[in-house]
Amino acid sequence: MVGTSLESFDFYLFAYFSAFFVGPLFFDPLGQVGATSVAFLTIAVAFVVRPIGALLFGYMGDRLGRRATLLWTVGIMGVATGLIGLLPTYAQAGWLGAVLLIVLRIAQGLSLGGEWGGSILIATEHSGPVKRAFYAAVPQLGSPVGSILSAVVFLVMTLSLPAEEMVAWGWRIPFLLALPLLAVSLYLRLTISETPVFAGVVAEGRRDRIPFVTMFAKRPVAMVIAIGAALLGIGSYSLMNTYTVNYGVEQLNFDYTELLVATTIGGLLQLVTIPLFGAWANRIGSARVVAWGALGTLLITFPMYALLQFATFPILVGTMIIGGILPTMSWAALGGLMNDLFPDNVRYSALSFAYALAATLSGFVPYLTFGLGAATDFAWWHPGIILAVMSAVTLVAAWVASRRRPEPELATQPESASIAV
Q1: Over the stretch 320-355, which tens digit does the pLDDT of each residue have?
Q2: Over 70: is that where the pLDDT of 319 sits?
């Protein structure tokens, strides 16, 4: 969970800075609208390459082990994030900085493509079937923790430095923080033992030679279900933490600091709700919890964005809380749902690729929502269209998943293995 939090911090840090610094600093000749659009596309670039990273690290995870693969993913993420803080801006080196920025975003995307599946499996494969849904929810805490940390860093920076100094050099500091955080994460992951499930797969000689081919050949329907089930949990983060923040500043005249405070309050609430939803998934099943979260989000989408137009801070906080807690239900139980869909010898590849492909689609959410807003003169309902579509897709996928039997666990996995660290 701690390692995933640090990876999420690195990744979300860029999302917070993108709309307000990436465009002006690296793509200034494109004009305000063009620079903002390209800034959102730099977010999308990292999502586009995530399926490639999922295939690469999924292969490593199913062949070499969960633990070793996670050391690679966090190492690449930390180094890439730190190097972003050293990039020259357009004023300093022309388009060189923009090109290098895209290269580093690709490296981040490749890393994150293999991170989520491995973190879920480290948790679930150290647990027995009775507690598996709860254990699958624990790594999901990494996303709100990373979001909170990145928001806090940004708030501290903006309150400590004048805007001119923030633009001139202050924006680099948060990215450079990734380097000492990388050392912490590597230390923690070196203390983790390999999972008993993967050890059983190796002992029984069941490692697949080309796991990503096997997962497509033998579990095509499960792949579609997993991608659809993941869409809301990932896409709602892209919508709320990236697009809605920029939309609130540009169109609703909120102060950027107020928006960050509101999203941070929502993130703090998730620290409580994610474990609770994980415990609930133990009782009724992960797929049903995902479905309830998707249904609730679908029902409140348009009323939520209608209220946001009144532009008061209490309404803003309420919107972020309500708009976050229901998708969080789908997010918290996602790992348990996907774990049950695939056999253990191709599970790393399957979870990583399905999640990464859903994340790739979600990476375009800010860009698509911005385009829809521009086409509708930023009508109040335009973000609701995107959120409602994602909710409906996840609802259908989760309902189908709830009708399927979980994959049997072939490797020996005693309940007592849950304490192995």
Answers
A1: 777 778 899 999 999 999 999 998 889 999 999 999
A2: yes
- Given this model, what pLDDT does residue 407 score? 66
Does 253 have pLDDT greater than 90?
no
For residue 277, the one-letter residue type is F
Q: What's the per-residue H, E or C state across 316-356?
A: HHHHHHHHHHHHHHHHHCHHHHHHCCCCCCCHHHHHHHHHH
The runs of H, that is alpha helices, within 49-141 are: 50-63, 66-84, 90-93, 96-124, 132-137
Rounded distance between C-alpha atoms, residue 415 and residue 421, angstroms? 14
CB half-sphere exposure, 297, CA atoms < 13 A = 37
* 230 pLDDT above the threshold of 70: yes
- Closest-CA residue to 304 (of 233, 370, 381): 381
Q: Looking at residue 20, what is its pLDDT?
A: 64
pLDDT at position 414, please? 40
Burial-class residue 80 by CB neighbours within 10 Å (0-12, 13-18, 19+): buried
Euclidean distance between the first and the last CA atom of the chain, given in angstroms as a whole number: 12
- State the Cα–Cα distance between residues 383 and 136, nearest whole angstrom: 30
Closest CA to 240 of 139, 337, 317: 317
Q: Is the dihedral of CA 249, 252, 255, 257 positive or negative?
A: negative
Domains of the chain and CATH, by start: 2-406 (1.20.1250.20)
Report d(CA 185, CA 78) in Å as an integer: 9
Residue 93, C-beta contacts closer than 8 angstroms, at least 6 positions apart: none
Distances (CA, A) of 377 to 369, 371, 380, 382: 12, 10, 9, 9
pLDDT band at 274 (very low <50, low <70, confident <90, very high): very high
